[in-house]
Amino acid sequence: MRKANVKMTGLAVLLVSLAACGGDPEASEPQVAAIPGATMSASAGPAGSNSGADRQLALGASKQEIDRLYDAYYACWVQHGVPSAPASGGNGGPLLSYKRDEKKYQPAVDACADKEPLSAPELDPHQNPNFADDLREKLQCVRDHGLSMEIRQGGTDNANIWVAPETKANLEKANSDAGLEIQRQCEISAFTQK
After folding, report:
1. Is the dihedral angle over the CA atoms 123, 184, 61, 36 positive or is it negative?
2. In 3D, which of 114, 165, 152, 131 has the Cα closest to residue 35?
3. Which of 29, 36, 105, 167 is most open to solvent, judged by the fewest CB atoms within 10 Å of its CB?
4. Which positions make up the signal peptide (predicted)?
5. Would the pTM of this model clear 0.70, i.e. be above it?
6. What does DSSP say about strands 91-93 and 85-88: parallel, antiparallel, or unpaired?
7. In this predicted model, what pLDDT tens digit does every residue of 85-141 receive, in sequence order?
8. Beta strand 159-163 with 149-153: parallel, antiparallel or unpaired?
9. 110-127 as b/e: b if 16+ CB within 10 A
């Protein structure tokens, strides 16, 4: 049985948000159209840190809502010494600087852990017992709407929808405004209590 209180505004466009904040275009990892739900709990961070409520993304969050939270998170990185790397192909910022020297900038990232946006609980397999079924439903929905995607592992224990095959055309279609809206609507539909 799913939780009765399901939020209606969540996470489907983090790739664009992260790219705008400095994703590395030359990363060797697969390109994604949605970032796996974070498993960090609202209690993460030192005592007295921000509560999860002010950094909690809701299911179906708009790009603007996601950008607002990530802008605050990356601003904290900059305040703690992570420089904003020059843009390369439209990507730059503190995330790119971090990826170039993770060991050097990890203390700054750790200092900002209490500001890292939290994914919608519905997108966390530890909080949503129906996560696998919901993810398969989302995949079917995006495919029904013409997006070429598949389910892949996206971390230690998270799976998500990834663009596949990773052709330029498929990536552009999935990351277009229309493609992102399809993913957002499919996510809301699939992960909302029925």
Report:
1. positive
2. 152
3. 29
4. 1-22
5. no
6. antiparallel
7. 777 666 778 999 899 999 999 999 999 999 999 999 999 999 999 999 999 999 999
8. antiparallel
9. ebbebbbbbbbbbbbbee
In the chain, what are the domain boundaries? 14-121, 126-191
Rounded distance, CA 71 to CA 77, Å? 10
pLDDT attached to residue 40: 33
Residues of 82-103 as b/e, b for ≥16 C-beta within 10 angstroms?
Answer: bebbeeeeebbbbbbbbeeeee
Alpha-helix residue ranges (DSSP H) falling in 90-156: 94-100, 102-111, 131-144
Taking Cα atoms as reference points, which of 116, 77, 83 lies closest to residue 100?
Answer: 83
- Residue 107 phi, psi dihedral angles, 5° rounding: -60, -35
